[in-house]
Every structure is written in C-alpha cells, then in structure tokens.
Design a protein that fits this description.
DNA-binding; 4 strands; two-stranded parallel sheet; about 110 residues; mainly alpha; 4 helices
Length: about 110
DNA sequence: CGTCTGACGGTAA
DNA sequence: ATTACCGCCAGAC
C-alpha cells in the first residue's frame, strides 16, 4: 500500500486533520494545501467515501463562498457541529471570511 | 475505450 | 438570490 494514489489521498486527509477547531477550509483550499491545485472535486470525493469510523473534522470543509455543499442529514449534522465550535450557520451559509483557514502568517 | 456522474469553482444571464 | 453552463478529473459501468 504505497501507491501514488494512496499517498495523494493521505495528504488530503492530513490537511483536513490539520484544520484548527473553530476554523473553516474550502474544498479548493484543502486541495491546494495538499499539493493538488484545482482538485477540489477530488477532496469532495475523498470525504464522501470516508469510512463510518473516521475521526476527521470533515464538517470544517465547506464550499467556496461559505456554502455548505452537503445535503440531507449530513447538512444538519454539519451545521450542528460547526455551531458547537462557535461558527454561526444561517441557511446553510457561513461567515467564511472570518473563519477561513489557512491564512497568511499561519 | 467511451460516457456519465459529482460533499467543486467560477462565470454568465 | 437562483439557474444554467463550463472546466476539471477520479471512479463507476
């Protein structure tokens, strides 16, 4: 298990795992941090296929512009988890500008 | 190998 | 604000 695919995936997972509590990251941002510029969709795919027993802060990953891209029960859960971290959620929208990660200097 | 899909992102109307 | 479309690319078939 050391294919380029697995490594690429590991980097995405590691990046998401590094998102600080109370902060947000976009799919595209995670992809960029993982060294995969322009692969936002790949990040989404990785999250979608996570096993049920993962411990990653998946809820901190949102769409560009601060939109929740999840739907159904996941969206409800995500909103709840985010609010629990002090990030207000209104109508599936978030104040991305004030919580986005990473940012200059960090 | 050809097509379709999508937890994206951006632009146009 | 909402809808439609396009570019992108890894999987599923």
């Amino acid at each position: 298990m050391n294919d380029p695919d697995d490594l690429r995936r590991q980097r995405v997972l590691a990046t998401i795992d590094a998102i600080p509590r109370g902060r947000l990251a976009t799919y595209g941002g995670v992809a960029l941090e993982a060294g995969l510029p322009g692969r936002a969709r790949y990040v989404a795919r990785v999250l979608r296929e996570l096993p049920a027993n993962h411990t990653l802060p998946w809820h901190r990953v949102v769409g560009a512009g601060g939109h929740l891209r999840t739907s159904g029960p996941s969206a409800t859960l995500q909103a709840r988890l985010l609010r629990a971290e002090g990030i207000p959620v209104r109508a599936g929208r978030l104040d991305l500008a004030n919580h986005v990660w990473p940012r200059a200097g960090e």
